[in-house]
């Protein structure tokens, strides 16, 4: 036979596609839903993450911030100004303490000044004022904006005047919130927001003045790599400055975004694999149905390469059609999801539908289709022309002949090569989707390992089932025995189907369990009782009274937090004097003014990263140090830090580092980097810091009540800033749940199509049973038992591996794993019900098949 041209092969392939539209619907559906979930979920999650990153930037008011505790030198100032040459914007923020009085009063009040350039500040976010007005109108000239607590303490109103240094300024507005409130300094006293020019007019800034200088930077493009590069540059010529980028402004947001990104990337990869599984099962079923046609073509002289060419073209066409439909659905998902979630989230992510995303979707759909249909396509080489004349299901060749053994080894080798190519392709796709070679390799290795174990487990379950039926042959009802035996009947791909369904169940359950664990953690970070009002300078004799007042105050929720603080300094670390320490972007003079806190139990919002926390009552001097501080001081577990004891310089505290901790930044305890047992600080002078949660609109009442009874206690109101933080975390939580649910739905549809693809194999069995006198109800019972057993076994195996996978992943994400017994049980029942339902939705017409229609083809 002459070589078959690609044009002829395409013509034959397209004719077969048109003649078997119903059969190919499962293939197209699997590819389309897989690509749709992939492009839609990935596209929306990328757009949403970019939107959230803007919100994260607003908590810093810029892309980066450099905090200094002294004015930069001339050389440093030149280098700072040089950074703006490439389009980077920079604005300084000066923070300092000063004294202010009402215009006609001599009673001074310690205040916290914040001087900014209203033409540039803030780069991200807005300053909310009352009455509402632009920041340029509220500050500058003779106008300033102040905190509500200043009005309370000086008994002033908007429009009144205050004396600040040599300047008399008018209160134009009250500051309700400012974007960088959480990342700025928590200075004691009410705050006053003014311009840099006004600060000069006050003449408060002089040589040697204690003022904090913060520089905010905004890059021309929102690029994380550019942010990291600028951060490295700043650390190089500002060694004494603390450099922070927008990802480090709040640990809760950083952890939430990192974890959410990991889960959403997994969702995309799961959608890819589930689509590929559906394609493989559907194409395998189709090719098995076409064995007669393949045998006829070979009888007429066609070679295996000719037949492979036809079905390769057919596979490409199916992949392109499914990919095109999937990309259209994915774009639809990206269009619809923001509309559905706009009211719920309060934000609408920008729509980014790039040509590269469409091309990536089409290529992904085509590549996965080709990869996962390779093994069944290779089986075409083993189809013999004699099949059309001798239609036995079992292999008719001699099992032990040398030729047959060689053929099996050769066939197995080809399948092994095909499997290796599949894994290589999945690695490339996973690496591209996750933007990480490590993630791509780990995902592929894990997928290959799980698939092998699932195949072995499926084979073992079928072997046990066969032994069980042999031992209980006489005691089981014929219908039950027949239904169970159907799982390992000749020609039935039960092991492959069990592995495919088990893999699908495992991946869907893994996404669900991971999303639930992440959402649970996010809910802990968004509790409405987290502190949003902080108290400073509470005397030991006032702790009980302040706590009682907070509990009785309207609008205050939850239990107030009170932590003892001992002022101290670091004398030496591991025998090296503090003045000789090599620190990373941390001014050495800060070591002379640190805060120690005593605790006997793990404080809320704190986790041990390394080491072990002490037990209550342990007299041994030891310290738990914050992770970032440990990196700056270069201390490890077992290091010794020598702290100066206030009031007793002859008896310093030599504490061993036994734990490195990490705080979520949302509790009063997060303000302390050094935790020690109570016994180590007993008898030292102490002052208390506090935290409580109050309704944002009731904070003013709380401030007035505290000032009336405890005028020396300073109240720092970050309620509005905490609400912004809480809303961001809630948005992350909702999107993770929604996209995980969408991916799970897509996976269920794909699994259903894979199960439904077996209906064409049942026609012959139904005909044989009907010819032997079986009724429809008997056949229905046999099939129901088969479907239920298939779902039960696949669900059980899949859920076992899902829990093992989730346990490992959660440990990497620093999240706790909890076995959800009822959820697993309900999931098992749901998988079994889905398998039975899907099997019958695809097979109910098979029961109406007339025996004569099939027997005439024999």
Main β-sheet description: 6 strands, mixed, barrel
| Computed Rg | 35 Å
Question: Averaging pLDDT over every residue, what do you get?
Answer: 75
With strands numbered from the N-terminus, the spatial order across the biggest sheet is 2-3-8-5-7-6
Structural class: alpha+beta
* Shape verdict: elongated
List the total number of helices.
23
Q: What distance separates the N and C termini? A: 28 Å
Number of strands: 21
Count of separate structural domains: 3
Helix content: 40-55%
**Amount of beta strand:** 15-25%
Low-pLDDT segments: 391-403
Describe the structure.
With 858 residues, the chain is an alpha+beta fold. It folds into 3 domains: 6-54 and 254-524 and 727-855, no CATH class; 64-218, no CATH class; 533-717, no CATH class. The chain contains 23 helices and 21 strands. Strands 2-3-8-5-7-6 form a 6-stranded mixed beta barrel. A 6-stranded mixed beta barrel has the order 12-14-19-16-18-17. The longest helix has 42 residues, at 304-345. The relative contact order is 0.12. Residues 391-403 have low confidence and may be disordered. Residues 26-209 form the MacB-like periplasmic core domain.
Give the SSE map.
Blueprint: H1 6-19, H2 21-60, E1 64-68, H3 74-82, E2 89-102, E3 109-116, E4 128-130, H4 135-138, E5 143-146, H5 148-154, E6 161-164, E7 167-177, E8 191-195, H6 196-202, E9 211-218, H7 224-237, E10 242-245, H8 251-289, H9 291-299, H10 304-345, H11 355-378, H12 402-434, H13 437-471, H14 478-485, H15 494-525, E11 533-538, H16 543-552, E12 556-573, E13 576-577, E14 594-598, E15 606-611, E16 622-626, H17 627-633, E17 640-644, E18 653-663, E19 674-676, E20 687-694, H18 699-709, E21 714-717, H19 719-756, H20 762-771, H21 776-812, H22 821-843, H23 851-855
Helix pairs in contact: 1-10, 2-8, 2-10, 2-11, 2-19, 5-18, 8-11, 8-12, 8-15, 8-19, 10-11, 11-12, 12-13, 13-15, 13-21, 14-21, 15-19, 15-21, 19-22, 21-22
Subcellular location: Cell membrane
Keywords: Cell membrane, Membrane, Transmembrane, Transmembrane helix
Protein name: Putative ABC transport system permease protein
């Amino acid at each position: 036979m002459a070589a078959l041209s690609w044009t002829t092969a395409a013509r034959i392939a397209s004719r077969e596609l048109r003649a078997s539209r119903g059969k190919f619907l499962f293939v197209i559906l699997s590819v389309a839903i897989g690509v749709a979930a992939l492009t839609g979920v990935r596209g929306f999650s990328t757009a949403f993450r970019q939107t959230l990153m803007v919100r994260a930037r607003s908590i810093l008011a810029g892309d980066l911030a450099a905090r200094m505790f002294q004015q930069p030198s001339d050389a440093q100032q030149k280098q700072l100004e040089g950074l703006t040459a490439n389009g980077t914007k920079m604005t300084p923020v000066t923070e300092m303490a000063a004294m202010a009085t009402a215009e006609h009063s001599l009673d001074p009040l310690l205040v916290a000044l914040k001087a900014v350039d209203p033409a540039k500040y803030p780069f991200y976010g807005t300053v909310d004022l009352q009455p509402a007005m632009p920041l340029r109108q509220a500050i500058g000239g003779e106008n300033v904006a102040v905190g509500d607590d200043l009005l309370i303490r000086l008994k002033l109103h908007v429009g009144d005047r205050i004396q600040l240094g040599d300047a008399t300024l008018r209160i134009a507005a009250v500051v309700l919130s400012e974007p960088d409130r959480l990342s700025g300094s928590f200075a004691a006293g009410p705050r006053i927001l003014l311009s840099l020019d006004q600060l000069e007019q006050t003449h408060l800034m002089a040589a040697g003045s204690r003022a904090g200088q913060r520089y905010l930077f905004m890059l021309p493009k929102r690029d994380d790599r550019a942010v990291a590069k600028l951060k490295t540059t700043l650390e190089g010529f500002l060694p004494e400055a603390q450099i922070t980028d927008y990802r480090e402004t709040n640990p809760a947001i950083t952890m939430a975004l990192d974890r959410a990104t990991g889960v959403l990337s997994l969702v995309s990869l799961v959608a890819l694999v589930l689509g590929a599984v559906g394609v493989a099962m559907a194409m395998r079923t189709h090719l098995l149905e076409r064995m007669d046609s393949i045998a006829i073509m070979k009888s007429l002289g066609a070679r295996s390469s000719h037949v492979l060419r036809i079905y390769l073209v057919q596979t490409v066409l199916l992949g392109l059609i499914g990919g095109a439909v999937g990309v259209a659905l994915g774009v639809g998902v990206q269009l619809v999801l923001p509309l559905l979630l706009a009211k719920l989230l309060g934000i609408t992510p920008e729509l980014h539908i790039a040509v590269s995303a469409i091309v990536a979707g089409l290529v992904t759909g085509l590549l996965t289709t080709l990869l996962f249909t390779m093994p069944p396509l290779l089986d075409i080489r083993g189809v013999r022309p004699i099949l059309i004349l001798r239609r036995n299901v079992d292999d008719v060749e001699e099992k032990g002949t040398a030729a047959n053994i060689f053929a099996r080894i050769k066939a197995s080798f080809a399948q092994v090569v095909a499997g290796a190519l599949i894994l290589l392709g999945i690695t490339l796709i996973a690496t591209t989707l996750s933007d990480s070679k490590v993630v791509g390799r780990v995902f592929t290795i894990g997928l290959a390992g799980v698939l092998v174990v699932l195949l072995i487990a499926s084979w073992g379950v079928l072997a046990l089932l066969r032994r069980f039926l042999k031992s209980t042959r006489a005691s089981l009802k014929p219908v039950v025995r027949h239904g169970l035996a159907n799982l390992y009947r000749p020609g039935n791909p039960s092991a492959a189907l069990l592995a495919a369904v088990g893999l699908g169940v495992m991946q869907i359950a893994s996404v669900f369990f991971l999303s639930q664990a992440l959402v649970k953690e996010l809910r802990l970070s968004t509790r409405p009782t987290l502190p949003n009002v902080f108290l400073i300078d509470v005397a030991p004799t006032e702790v009980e009274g302040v706590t009682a007042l907070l509990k009785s105050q309207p609008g205050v929720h939850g239990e107030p937090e009170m932590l003892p603080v001992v002022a101290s300094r670091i004398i030496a670390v591991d025998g090296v004097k503090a003045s000789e320490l090599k620190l990373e972007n941390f001014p050495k003079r800060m070591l002379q003014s640190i805060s120690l806190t005593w605790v006997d139990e793990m404080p809320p919002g704190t986790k041990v990263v390394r080491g072990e926390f002490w037990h209550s009552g342990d007299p041994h001097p030891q310290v738990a140090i914050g992770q970032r501080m440990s990196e700056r001081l270069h201390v490890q577990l077992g290091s010794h830090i020598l702290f100066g004891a206030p009031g007793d310089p002859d008896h310093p505290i030599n504490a061993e580092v036994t734990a490195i901790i990490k705080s979520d930044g949302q509790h009063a305890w997060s303000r302390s980097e050094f935790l020690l047992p109570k016994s180590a600080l007993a008898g030292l002078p102490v002052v208390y810091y506090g935290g409580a949660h109050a309704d944002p609109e009731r904070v003013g009442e709380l401030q007035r009540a505290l000032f009336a009874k405890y005028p020396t206690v300073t109240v720092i109101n970050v309620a509005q800033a905490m609400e912004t933080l809480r809303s961001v975390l809630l948005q992350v939580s909702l999107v993770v749940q929604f996209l995980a649910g969408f991916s799970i739905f897509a996976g269920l549809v794909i699994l259903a199509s894979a199960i439904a693809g077996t209906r064409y194999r049942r026609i012959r069995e139904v005909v044989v049973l009907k010819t032997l006198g079986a009724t429809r109800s008997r056949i229905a019972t046999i099939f129901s038992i088969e479907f239920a057993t298939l779902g039960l076994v696949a669900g059980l195996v899949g859920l076992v591996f899902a829990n093992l996978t989730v346990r490992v992943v959660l440990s990497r994400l620093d999240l706790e794993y909890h076995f959800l017994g009822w959820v697993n049980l309900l999931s098992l029942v749901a998988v079994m019900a889905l398998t039975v339902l899907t099997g019958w939705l695809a097979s109910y017409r098979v029961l109406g098949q007339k025996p004569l229609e099939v027997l005439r083809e024999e």
